[in-house]
Write a structure and sequence with these properties.
Number of domains: 2
Largest sheet: 7 strands, parallel
CATH superfamily of the largest domain: NAD(P)-binding Rossmann-like Domain
Helix content: 40-55%
CATH topology of the largest domain: Rossmann fold
Strand content: 15-25%
Order of helices and strands: HEEEHEHEHEHEHEHEHHHE
Distance between the termini: 45 Å
CATH architecture of the largest domain: 3-Layer(aba) Sandwich
Bound molecules: NADP nicotinamide-adenine-dinucleotide phosphate
Low-confidence stretches: 1-19
Shape: globular
Strand order of the largest sheet: 6-5-4-7-8-9-10
Length: 291
């Protein structure tokens, strides 16, 4: 039997290899080889409380079960409570742990009282700043309201959430990881998304600056810069002729799907990245690297 086929046994009478661990899945005992135990422990979020914003749609809707499958208690946050309930039902169906909170990240007061309430149940170990909006307009047509909406959602909200959690982790001297969902558009220009591009670039540099102050305290701040990932935010446009032209510019010759980000998310959220600070992981099928 090869190492590959020996890796996972599922079933009540599964043989238990020497020096293995076991885990429960759907009521079945799974005997895990040493290799699998090592991998699952490396990226484990067991015992961690993870606050995920933008959990009602797109990437967040996918990230929530991903984090729960890694063992986290996931706190789903957005304005769309009904949509989050569906996500939570999916998590509970496989025995994952989660709760939902209504939160508008444009409101400082709402963020502050939300964090205060959540922390009364236990410290937040991981913050995934994923809530975001994009407004696509040529520069001469952008309004101040457009700018404020994009900036407050994508950058200021992420900052206020981070600050509220950082204050508490410094006070209780507990480590935490902040994962900011930025964008390749924070690394390069593409046109028609000026406030979005500025906010995402700001989010990337926010992590670098915070890391300079906080890495010594065990507060890690990193970013993921996704390329074009098919979600509610963009799927109609990606199907247009413009979208097709763009797809051809991606070296991988396809747009991403949310699951393409799972590895980067679990790496940065978990202790696997314990010596990783101030970094930005591009997950973009080679889009930025090939420029
Ligand atoms: N899809 C891509 O290709 C791509 C690429 C790079 C980066 N990103 C980034 O990935 C993140 C998720 O994008 P997505 O594609 O999943 O978009 P999406 O499907 O439109 O989801 C956006 C999420 O943000 C939440 N949100 C928006 N405004 C909010 C507010 N004021 N308060 C709280 N939550 C708010 C929405 O929830 P409610 O409306 O229910 O509040 C929703 O859950 C964004 O930051 C986006 O910029 C996406």
């Amino acid at each position: 039997m090869t190492a590959r086929t020996r890796a996972v046994f599922i079933g009540k009478n599964a043989p238990t290899p020497a020096s293995s661990g076991t885990t429960k899945l759907f009521g079945l005992t799974i005997a895990m080889s040493e290799q699998n135990t090592f991998i699952s422990q490396l990226f484990s979020l067991e015992g961690k409380r993870v606050l995920l914003t933008g959990a009602s749609s797109g990437l967040g809707r996918h990230f929530a079960p991903t984090l729960a499958k890694a063992g986290a208690h996931v706190i789903l946050a957005s304005r769309g409570v009904e949509k989050m309930r569906e996500v939570a039902d999916g998590i509970e169906a496989f025995g994952g742990s989660c709760e939902i909170v209504a939160l508008d990240v444009r409101s400082r007061d709402a963020i502050r009282s939300c964090i205060e309430n959540l922390e009364s149940d236990g410290p937040i170990d991981v913050l995934v700043n994923n809530a975001g909006i994009a407004i696509v307009k040529s520069p001469q047509h952008l309004t101040d309201d457009d700018w404020d909406a994009v900036y407050e959602t994508n950058l200021r909200g992420a900052w206020v959430l981070a600050q509220e959690i950082i204050k508490r982790r410094l006070a209780d001297q507990r480590e935490c990881s902040i994962v900011n969902i930025a964008s390749v558009l924070g690394l390069r220009g593409i046109g028609h998304v000026a406030p979005y591009a500025a906010a995402k670039a700001g989010l990337i540099n926010l992590g670098r600056d915070l890391s300079t102050d906080l890495a010594k305290n065990g507060v890690r701040v990193n970013a993921i810069a996704p390329g074009y990932i098919e979600t509610e935010m963009n799927q109609e446009w990606l199907k247009t002729e413009g979208g097709e032209r763009l797809r051809k510019k991606v070296p991988a010759k396809r747009f991403g799907v949310p699951a393409d980000l799972d590895g980067a998310l679990l790496y940065l959220a978990s202790d696997a990245s314990r010596y990783t600070n101030a970094t930005v992981l591009t997950v973009d099928g080679g889009f930025v690297g090939a420029l």
